[in-house]
Amino acid sequence: MYRALIAIVLGAAFGPAMAQGTPVGLWRSFDDKTGEAKAEVRIAETSGVLSGKIEKRLLKTAKPDDVCTECSDDRKDQPLLGLEIIRGAKKAEGAGVWEGGKILDPENGKNYTLKMTPVEDGKKLDVRGSFGPFGRTQTWVRVN
Length: 144
Prior knowledge:
Blueprint: H1 2-19, E1 25-30, E2 37-46, E3 49-57, E4 84-91, E5 98-105, E6 110-119, E7 124-131, E8 134-142
Antiparallel strand pairs: 1-2, 1-8, 2-3, 3-4, 4-5, 5-6, 6-7, 7-8
């Protein structure tokens, strides 16, 4: 009885903290040039695989009917709002890193190799998109 109670208490106390060590959740991205909040991206997990969709666009220049004109796959001419920009990321064995997926830059329609690393106790997420040896890392901030 006491063991079950202790397990419940510990699970309630540490469960949310452990969840924060994953990319799952709602994140705010920022424009590389201006630093302005750009979008909110919801990352979800299905069977150990992460995907992420644009849930809210924050740039002042964003229009509700904007579409991905530069995309060349099934996302071509799809609305940016609700667009899946992260596909196929999985947790790397033995590390707090998710990789093996792709991230789409809707501005140029290109897909990049993806690596995501939660930092600062899961309050921030380093999101790296790369093409061969070239790439860039953005730091996203957890919304919830």
